[in-house]
Design goal:
By secondary structure, the protein is of the alpha/beta class. The protein has two domains: 159 residues, Response regulator (Rossmann fold, 3-Layer(aba) Sandwich), CATH 3.40.50.2300; 300 residues, Alpha-Beta Horseshoe (pyruvate-formate lyase- activating enzyme). The protein is built from 21 helices and 15 strands. Helix 1 links the parallel strand 1 and strand 2. The protein binds cobalamin and iron/sulfur cluster.
């Protein structure tokens, strides 16, 4: 059957696995893709420029003309409204079954299925459910009740089937169909993204994993990892096929197993040898891990610290690492010469100004090379929503808006209230300046005048740009190129 994926933002590893799985079973797949640099879902939030680069109408026209047998939308909370709007526009012009999958439908399948433009939802990992759905559609049968992970409707009755177990052996999946995206925007391959695992051992209250851990509470192990040889096979093929400048290991926590890394990294260095960046966690940094990664070509590591306040980390974010451990881990990475990027979240429920000052102080102690600061966004069915409800920080309307995906998104002010944005912007600027200015007395002088500065958002952005230049981080250049570099879009 002919299956069409429609997506906007960056490349999507989940779609790449779905596509390769379908192809391995004889189906054909295609993609309509909008890089959507200015929509705010993924990169920048500039509505004025969005109207110039809008590809929605072209996507609708092409989808209708293509006459696919099934259209697949992959939704996170930020792009869910866009997906709904696109599905409705297409369905108003032709009769085509539409399935929604991804993290948002996984969290709230019934809410998604309620929409008349959505025929099916798939929760959790979608490879097998999608194959079985196609099988049913092809045979013209209605055996939907036997398809685990599928949600469907009969008339106005909605049915969400039980969930199947996690895919235990990821090596059995075909390698991700990178061409699906790279044939449209070849430059995406320059920063080649790869996931060597699925799942995270932790369950931070704000993260999609806290939703998954609840849903899969019967599973013994949430983390599954591809074999070293399976990952190397993907990278060998990729190295021969694309112009890769760096590789990004996008796992939830790439450094979680020393044994795996100890087997992988020497082979990676010998056979692939491309500089790479990866994710880490304060509890999964050790000197031997850092040495191994540095030796293997790691140039940057991204580590979530989220808050400098032990109370916020433990009671609100459900993270168990100590401040001491965070500092030790951060300094260990820095001393090795690997660039350290850290994430911070502003706007946690019950967070006080003292808590934010603790975050600022922690950043001052670690002096990371780059700070990625977020204003908290509430994602459906994550544990932090329960905490916010308990503290009367969300009313029923806001709760409903979160399920509908219409309350803030990561690159706006998240879900924090407008009255707090000013305070958080001031601290965000201080944090960025703290990273930019490594000399303590110079920084202290500037910190005292920061609250008086106008255009804090703009100055924050300039500070981020200067930090990127200072650390020779090519991310901005990549984004600028991404705006123009389209071969076959949508
Ligand atoms: C790698 C990653 C990225 C990468 C690559 C994006 C990608 N999706 O590949 C980058 C850096 C670009 C990115 C960006 C963002 N990300 Co991100 N990202 C991740 C991460 C760590 C892994 C995603 C992944 O590849 N998983 C592995 C694949 C195999 O699983 P999957 O994507 O879930 O897909 C499977 C199923 O969901 C399902 N499925 C998915 N789509 C569909 C569609 C159909 C039709 C079907 C049937 C099934 C199906 O089948 C797939 C295969 O089994 C996740 C966290 C996580 N562990 O999932 C966050 C996560 C998805 N990201 C998140 C967010 C918020 C973002 C950003 C909006 C903001 C940001 N943090 O910068 C942007 C926007 C993304 C965009 N427009 O493309 C959130 C989403 C939360 C939510 N409820 O919305 C997550 C869950 C992290 C979190 N904070 O909790 N991200
Ligand atoms: S450690 Fe990172 S990926 Fe894992 S649950 Fe926490 S925030 Fe999510």
């Amino acid at each position: 059957m002919n299956v069409l994926f429609i997506y906007n933002g960056s490349e999507h590893i989940g779609i790449q696995f779905l596509s390769s799985t379908l192809k391995a079973h004889g189906h054909s797949t295609s993609l309509l893709f909008d890089p959507a640099v200015f929509t705010g879902h993924s990169f920048l939030d500039i509505p004025f420029l969005k109207s110039f680069t809008n590809l929605d109408q072209e996507i609708v026209d092409k989808a209708v003309a293509q006459k696919p047998d099934l259209i697949c939308f992959s939704c996170f909370t930020g792009n869910y409204s866009w997906c709904l709007q696109m599905a409705a526009r297409i369905k108003s012009r032709c009769e085509v079954p539409v399935v929604f999958g991804g993290v948002h439908p996984t969290a709230v399948p019934k809410t998604v299925l309620q929409n008349s433009c959505v025929d099916y939802v798939v929760v959790g990992e979608g490879e097998d459910a999608l194959l079985e759905l196609l099988d049913c559609l092809q045979k013209g049968t209605v055996g939907f009740q036997g398809i685990a992970n599928l949600g469907y409707k009969i008339g106005s009755d909605m049915h969400i089937n039980p969930t199947r177990p996690y895919i235990k052996n990821l090596d059995l999946l075909p390698l991700p169909d990178k061409d699906l995206f790279y044939s449209k925007v070849p430059m995406l391959a320059e920063m080649y993204r790869v996931m060597t695992s699925r799942g995270c051992p932790f369950s931070c209250s704000f993260c999609g994993n806290s939703m998954l851990h609840r849903m899969y509470s019967h599973e013994k192990k949430h983390v599954r990892r591809r074999s070293v040889q399976n990952v190397l096979e993907e990278l060998r093929i990729a190295k021969n096929k694309y112009r890769i400048k760096s590789i990004i290991f996008s796992d939830d926590i790439f450094t979680m197993s020393y044994d795996w890394l100890n087997e992988f990294i020497p082979l990676y260095k010998a056979e692939i040898g491309i500089p790479f960046s990866c994710t880490t966690h304060p509890n999964f940094i050790r000197q031997d891990i850092v040495d191994l990664l540095k030796e293997g070509g790691c140039w940057s590591m991204q580590m979530g610290i989220q808050s400098g306040s032990e109370r916020i980390r433990k009671d609100i974010f459900h993270r168990n690492e100590t401040t001491e451990r965070i500092i030790q881990s951060g300094l260990m990475v820095k001393r090795s010469g690997i660039k350290l990027f850290v994430d911070i979240i502003l706007g946690a429920p019950t967070e006080t100004e003292d808590d934010i000052r603790d975050s600022l102080a922690l950043i001052g102690k670690i002096k990371p090379d780059r700070l990625v600061s977020f204003f908290l966004t509430y994602y459906p069915e994550t544990e932090i929503i329960d905490i916010a409800l308990k503290n009367n920080l969300l009313d029923p309307l806001q709760y409903e808006q979160i399920q509908q995906g219409v309350i803030g998104y990561t690159h706006s002010s998240g879900s924090v209230s407008k009255s707090k944005v000013k305070l958080y912007s001031t601290y965000e600027l201080m944090m960025q300046l703290r990273v930019l200015i490594t000399n303590d007395s110079v920084y202290n002088g500037i910190e005292s005048i920061t609250p008086l500065l106008p255009f804090k958002g703009l100055i924050s952005k300039i500070a981020k740009l200067l930090i990127a230049i200072k650390t020779k981080n090519m991310r901005y250049a990549f984004y600028i190129k991404y705006i123009f570099a389209k071969k076959d879009v949508p």
